[in-house]
Amino acid sequence: MHADYSTLRSQLFDLMSTSPKERGLVSPSTKRKSESLETISFDDMTYERTDGIGNRVESPSSEDPCKRLREDPKPQISKVYVKTDPSDTSLMVKDGYQWRKYGQKVTRDNPSPRAYFRCSFAPSCPVKKKVQRSAEDTSIIVATYEGEHNHVHPSQTEVAHGSCHNGSLPCSVSINSSGPTITLDLTKQVFSPGGSASGEIESPEFQRLLVDQMASSLTRDPNFTAALATAISGRILQHPPA
DNA sequence: CGCGTTTGACCGGCGC
DNA sequence: GCGCCGGTCAAACGCG
Known about the structure:
By secondary structure, the chain is an alpha+beta fold. It is built from 6 helices and 9 strands; from the N terminus they run H-H-E-E-E-E-E-E-E-H-E-E-H-H-H. The strands form 2 sheets. Strands 1-2-3-7-6-5-4 form a 7-stranded antiparallel sheet. It has a two-stranded antiparallel sheet with strand order 8-9. Mean pLDDT is 58; it is low at 19-46, 48-74 and 157-201. It binds a DNA duplex through strand 4. This is Putative WRKY transcription factor WRKY76. GO terms for molecular function: DNA-binding transcription factor activity; sequence-specific DNA binding. One of its GO terms (biological process) is response to other organism.
């Protein structure tokens, strides 16, 4: 998955660098929705992130800076395209967070109903999520995330205490949530040949801790968990057990 | 009985 | 000003 992601990301950057004008002219008529888009693809699902801050990379003075001085109350808007079965009408996208549905509407541009979710893990969490089936392909669900979680991942709270900040593990796994970067740091004498750590990594307890840590770090990213859930569900639905 | 979902009502922004 | 439309509220409902 990482290899596919890297390949597609390089292709995306290449595409963007070749046609920067088209990026800036995404929607010149719409004043508020013309932000930079970043689209990556994860096998059979596509993840698209919209930077809602409004920090245009190119031609920042094209719009009146005086009129656009107001701070955007929604600093981050991200879209996640999830491929599911068309028969699944629940519109429930499992991304690891706890969501509470507070509304559903049938919009004009899309016959499919749009569901509105709020993060129910923390009462003060400002994150909202809109889930709507794609009008073109009913097997694709578009989840739009608004805002950022002001709390840790629910599944992270228990595992986080056993992380390597106390030096208990000879490695570290980190995910840069601000960008599509996953870093796996295994440089800490883990694979030292002939070293004492060679026996340590083979211990089932260490492997279990490593798996737990990697899983917890990955599940911190809601986009990854959504993509993973989609991949698994997609495979199951495509190849149902006999 | 508590919690989450459903669903119609309500509200505010926007265009005509 | 009016109507449309997207988003939110909240009471009713259902389930464990």
